[in-house]
């Protein structure tokens, strides 16, 4: 029988905080209880914000917490060819298009629409969905813009992608969504609009690299924070378009600060590094996030 495969997949673009510690410890514990494997993956496609120094900090924090993981650690920045191959499949199927609108242009287009009192749709994270005007450019117009060096991102033509799959999608959730969703959860990728699949210089986005890697690494159980619950709908759609296996999902509670806000990497006070410097032990960390101290 093949053993279940779990993974913790931090982005080394800042220091780990208590929320990451919870996610890593939970993954590790669930893997142990299921006699499964525990992998570590560095989600470092954003090569400008992820640095080797921050990665060293992540590895140090996880080892300090008492975790161990299989070697080698998969580093996404070393596997751009895998994401490029997946992107090319979507390009060939005409399910992605080069999107040229800058953030400012998107804002202006939405402000113009909303000036009349209408409200532009927002995605589950609260960001306005991409207007998608350039979905309708002709191949010649696209080529001309690319040839003149215009910046662009590859975006999924969401409506075309959903039509291509042609059936409702679900995922198996053993944790819970923000509204208590659990069990067989219907995926609603449309709510996200035309998501970014890859950048001009980097042949991947979070959505693309996460599904490709989970499949390549044989991940059977995705255990991660509830903030990624609704993004799973996009992942299910990509799995279907790319013919990838579907893991089981478990979205866990988020560790909140004293004001009930999600912890962030930019606020250093709950970083494991700062807590360690102020004298906290790994056992203290476990206690702080409600983990049994063994
Ligand atoms: N790299 C993502 C993060 O740090 C997690 C991705 C995932 O677990 O699917 O938020």
Put the structure in a nutshell:
This protein is of the alpha/beta class and 294 residues long.
Task: Note down, in words, how this protein is organized.
The chain is an alpha/beta fold and 294 residues long. Helix content is 36%, strand content 14%. The protein has a three-stranded parallel β-sheet, with helices on one face. β1, α1 and β2 form a beta-alpha-beta unit. α7 crosses α8. It starts with a strand and ends in a 6-residue tail after the last helix. The protein binds glutamic acid.
Break the fold down into its secondary structure elements and pairings.
Elements: E1 5-8, H1 18-33, E2 37-42, H2 52-64, E3 74-75, H3 80-92, E4 96-99, H4 103-114, H5 139-147, E5 153-156, H6 158-165, E6 170-173, E7 183-186, E8 196-199, H7 206-216, E9 221-225, H8 232-242, E10 248-252, H9 272-277, H10 282-288
Parallel strand pairs: 1-2, 2-3, 9-10
Antiparallel strand pairs: 4-5, 5-8, 6-7
Bound molecules: glutamic acid (GLU).
Glutamic acid is lined by residues 9-11, 43, 210, 224, 228.
Query: First CA to last CA: what distance?
Result: 29 Å
Q: Estimate what percentage of residues fall within beta strands.
A: 5-15%
The major beta sheet can be summarized as:
3 strands, parallel
Compressed to H and E, one letter per element, the order equals EHEHEHEHHEHEEEHEHEHH
């Amino acid at each position: 029988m093949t053993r279940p495969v779990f993974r913790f997949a931090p982005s080394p673009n800042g220091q780990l905080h208590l929320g990451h510690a919870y996610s890593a410890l939970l993954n590790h514990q669930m893997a142990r209880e299921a006699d499964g494997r525990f992998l570590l993956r560095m989600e470092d496609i954003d090569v400008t914000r992820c640095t080797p120094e921050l990665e060293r900090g992540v590895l140090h924090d996880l080892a300090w917490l008492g975790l161990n993981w299989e070697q080698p650690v998969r580093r996404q920045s070393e596997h751009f060819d895998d994401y490029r191959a997946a992107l090319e499949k979507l390009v060939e199927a005409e399910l992605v298009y080069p999107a040229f609108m800058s953030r400012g242009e998107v804002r202006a287009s939405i402000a113009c629409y909303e000036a009349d009192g209408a409200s532009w749709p927002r995605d589950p994270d609260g960001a306005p969905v991409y207007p998608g005007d350039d979905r309708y450019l002709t191949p010649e117009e696209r080529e001309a813009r690319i040839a003149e060096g215009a910046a662009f991102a590859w975006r999924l033509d969401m409506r075309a992608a959903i039509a291509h799959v042609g059936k409702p999608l679900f995922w198996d959730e053993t944790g819970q969504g923000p509204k208590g969703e659990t069990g067989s959860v219907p995926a609603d990728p449309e709510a996200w609009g035309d998501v970014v699949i890859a950048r001009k210089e980097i042949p991947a986005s979070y959505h693309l690299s996460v599904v490709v890697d989970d499949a390549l690494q044989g991940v059977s159980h995705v255990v991660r924070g509830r903030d990624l619950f609704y993004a799973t709908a996009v992942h299910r759609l990509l799995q279907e378009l790319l013919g990838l296996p579907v893991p089981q999902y478990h979205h866990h509670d988020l560790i909140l600060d004293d004001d009930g806000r999600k912890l962030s990497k930019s606020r250093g006070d709950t970083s494991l590094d700062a807590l360690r410097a102020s004298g906290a032990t790994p056992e203290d960390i476990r206690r702080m996030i409600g983990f049994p101290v063994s």
